[in-house]
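User: Structure please.
Assistant: Input sequence and predicted structure:
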Amino acid sequence: MPELVGKLHLPQIGEIVLDYLQNPEKLRCIQEQMKNVSGKAGTDQKITNLAME
């Protein structure tokens, strides 16, 4: 689920969630985009380990 930012109202959130439930391909697309932006899994832990050394 993408992060929602700003002044939101429950009906808006409900519409967004319902849209993703009815269109799972949209959610998969966003998940892929997030993976591409955030990098490989575990990168945050590797950076933390390097910083602690």
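DSSP finds three helices and no strands in the chain.
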